[in-house]
């Protein structure tokens, strides 16, 4: 007979819980039992973003200051205050895709692989270099502007919401998206 039980557990040492979960495999085959525990690599956790999210709260004042710092023109910053953009995320293996759209603006799609810097053009025509990384269930996008400024987007899914923290130097804007 053959019996295999697989469980994901957290390891305890001296009453303290380890941050890394373990895969615990119990196997019983022909009278022999074995236990195998293997740490699960948290970097393999999938960023749960398949779906569409629309901006519902944009922290407009702080986000405007960030856009100004990176060189977005006043007329484009003013227009952005009225938009409620939609972001759609998907991935196939290591290939990720994010499509952005907003009323009156052409849809834009970015495809990327984690940890690979790539050149990109922003919606207002600025050239940037972007790198996407995954930190557990948080997707971190680092965008280096032509003027040397660095903008970092931390995207985290919590239930049917996507919380986005945007930082540029000491400027911080928090943006909230709801799943459609």
TrEMBL record:
GO terms for molecular function: lipid binding. Gene3D superfamilies: 2.40.128.20. The keyword Transport does not apply. InterPro entries: Calycin, Fatty_acid-bd, ILBP. It comes from the Eukaryota. Keywords: Lipid-binding. Belongs to the calycin superfamily. Fatty-acid binding protein (FABP) family. This is Mpa13 allergen. It comes from Daphnia magna.
């Amino acid at each position: 007979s053959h019996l295999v039980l697989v469980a994901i557990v957290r390891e305890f040492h001296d009453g303290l819980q380890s941050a890394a979960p373990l895969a615990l495999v119990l196997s019983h085959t022909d009278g022999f039992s074995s236990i195998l525990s293997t740490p699960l690599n948290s970097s393999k956790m999938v960023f749960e973003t398949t779906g569409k999210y629309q901006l519902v709260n944009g922290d407009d004042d702080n986000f405007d200051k960030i856009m100004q710092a990176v060189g977005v023109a006043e007329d484009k910053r003013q227009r952005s205050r009225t938009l409620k953009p939609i972001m759609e995320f998907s991935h196939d293996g290591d290939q990720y895709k994010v499509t952005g759209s907003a009323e009156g603006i052409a849809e834009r799609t970015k495809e990327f692989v984690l940890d690979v810097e790539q050149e990109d053009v922003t919606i207002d025509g600025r050239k940037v270099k972007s790198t996407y990384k995954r930190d557990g269930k948080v997707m971190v996008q680092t965008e280096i502007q032509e003027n040397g400024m660095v903008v970092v987007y931390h995207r985290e899914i919590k239930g049917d919401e996507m919380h986005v923290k945007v930082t540029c130097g000491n400027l911080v804007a928090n943006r909230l998206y709801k799943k459609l």
